[in-house]
Amino acid sequence: MPLHYFLSKRLLRLEGRLYSGNLSEVQFEIESALDRTQSLIVDLDPLEKIDVAGAYMLYIASEKARENNKEIILFCRNNEIVKLIFSFAGIHYSTKLPRATL
Question: The domain 4-89 is classified under which CATH number: 3.40.50.2300, 3.40.50.10330, 3.60.15.10, 3.30.750.24?
Fold first, then answer.
C-alpha cells in the first residue's frame, strides 16, 4: 500500500504510517506538490498511524507554505488517531473540504 497518492492536482491523500522514519519522503512529496499549485489539501483520514513527529512535520510544512504565500489544508474528518495526535500537539486541521477540491 502506498504512503501517498494524488487524487487531483490539489489533493494529496496519505495512507499507511506517517512517523519519524519516513518524514523526509513525505515532506519532499508535499513540497513538490506545492511547486505545482497554490493550495494543497492533505487528506489524513486514510492514515493507519501517525506520531507527534509526523504531525509536527505537517505543521511546519504548512507554516513554510504560508510564508511563501501558499496554503496547505490538513484535512481529517473521521480518523480518531490523527485527531488525538493533533489535539495533543495543539495543531489545527479542517473537517471540511473546500468546494472546488477536485
Answer: 3.30.750.24
